[in-house]
Amino acid sequence: MADRSASQSSVVITMKVTTTPAAHLAFTNLAYCSLSDLSEFAIPGSDLFLANVADSIEDGTIALNAVQRRHARVSADDMVTITRFVPPKKFDLTLLALELEFVKKGTKNEQVTLFFFVVVAALVIFETMHAYMQVFTVGQRVTFEFHGTNYILTVNRAVVEIDEIQTNGIERGMICNDTYLVFEASNASGIKITNQREAATRKIFKEKEFDLESLGIGALNAEFVDIFRRAFLYRLMPPQLRNRLGSKIVKGVLLYGPPGTGKTLMARQIGKMLNGKEPKIVNGPEVLSKFVGETEKNVRDLFADAENDQRTLGDDSDLHVIIFDEIDAICKSRGSSSDSTGVHDSIVNQLLTKIDGVEALNNVLLIGMTNRKDMLDEALLRPGRLEVLIEIGLPDEAGRVEILQIHTKMMKENSFLAPDVNLQELAAQTKNYSGAELEGVVKSATSYALNRHLNIEDLSKPVDEENIKVTMEDFLQALRE
Ligand code: ADP
């Protein structure tokens, strides 16, 4: 029997080390032992925490895998002392971030796959670690199993963001309630786990590949993260983790909001990001063919590639992203349209069958877009269909500055933007303008500037390119139009 002394603070338990295969344990610093309620206990100096009781483990023993035994510098049959974990003095959980680095990579090393793999790894770690309030120490190795392969991660750096927190020169970090994941796409071998949500969200897009600004998208960072988190992360999880979390794959997203706010822009980038190629974009009114019966065929054709892949490749099929612009045109509330032929009904049915019917496709993500959510057939928005609803609203003032910056970037880089142009001021004057309208303002201001330089009398005269300047007055004039 384990020897457990009476005093609360100085509980010391002695246990005998037994071995266990690595695959049993998700993480190296969770050690199974024969006692329950030991999550605040650790092997001193090793950060090995004691986890749940495992029935198969004998009384008075602690089961450690090879990596753990090395880490704790013990061998099988050694006796180890376990004490209550005492957090370092200035241990402020909310200040820490961790960076993990892969030391062994998966076999598929295509960038995107690897990146997603890293995301999954982070999620697995996050979910598990979070439950146990795990402490990490720099240099510590963490093993986990994913699709039958054991991966080893090392904790590369514990970023102490505000205060210097060190214990004996060892940097530590801990995942807690405030911890959020940051995915760094610029280097697929690195992941940061950090605690500041806003900072985290912003940070992702400061990284090269997901820099929305460089993709020409302004003011939609939060929405982008939302779509990513709600629609895609579950797809990337191993099925068993998904089952444990009780979540089903999201098959459809609806982006709704006023026209010109960047829905198409964003859906297209997301599609590209997910499978590296241009997504299929169709437009409601176009699909709605003049000829009765053709529309259903059009809808069927849309899914043909995905169906083919699912049939031939099964679970290995790539994700097919299908973007449906103006989806309200074909999925109007049934019975509400002026259409009396029942065509709309059968198209909606066709679409629903593809999404969740007998022929349900798991390799499809449908991104529907509409300016008129109120017009949509309710049936389309039920769970399992276009269930993730994301509103893309008009940009606020800060958002308008971002969008104006994006659309004046080129002229600024090429010195066509006069120094008096104050984007902040323009943003203040363009309340309720959409991204598309702001783009229009920039175009119009540019045309005023060009107009000054063109010699209308003699168009063959060369334009003095170097001196073209788009001024604040050009912008103000564009606003007055
Ligand atoms: P929606 O699909 O919401 O009607 P679009 O994505 O088609 O709008 O936007 C039309 C154009 O307006 C885009 O191609 C882009 O040039 C500009 N635009 C709209 N929203 C934004 C934005 N948030 N950031 C940058 N440009 C934008």
UniProtKB/TrEMBL annotation:
Example of a GO cellular component annotation carried by this entry: Golgi stack
EC number: 3.6.4.6
Keywords: ATP-binding, Cytoplasm, ER-Golgi transport, Hydrolase, Magnesium, Membrane, Metal-binding, Nucleotide-binding, Protein transport, Transmembrane, Transmembrane helix, Transport
Transmembrane segments: 112-133
UniProt-listed GO biological process terms: Golgi to plasma membrane protein transport; intra-Golgi vesicle-mediated transport; SNARE complex disassembly
Catalysed reaction equations from the record: ATP + H2O = ADP + phosphate + H(+)
Cofactor: Mg(2+)
UniProt-recorded Gene Ontology molecular function terms: ATP binding; ATP hydrolysis activity; metal ion binding
Domain CDC48 N-terminal subdomain: 14-88
Keyword Aminoacyl-tRNA synthetase annotated: no
Entry keyword Nucleotidyltransferase: no
Domain of life of the organism encoding this protein: Eukaryota
Residues annotated as domain AAA+ ATPase: 249-396
Enzyme class: hydrolase
UniProt-annotated location(s): Cytoplasm
Cofactor binding mode and count: Binds 1 Mg(2+) ion per subunit.
Similarity section: Belongs to the AAA ATPase family.
Cited function: Required for vesicle-mediated transport. Catalyzes the fusion of transport vesicles within the Golgi cisternae. Is also required for transport from the endoplasmic reticulum to the Golgi stack. Seems to function as a fusion protein required for the delivery of cargo proteins to all compartments of the Golgi stack independent of vesicle origin.
Protein name: Vesicle-fusing ATPase
Organism: Brassica carinata (Ethiopian mustard)
Lineage: Eukaryota, Viridiplantae, Streptophyta, Embryophyta, Tracheophyta
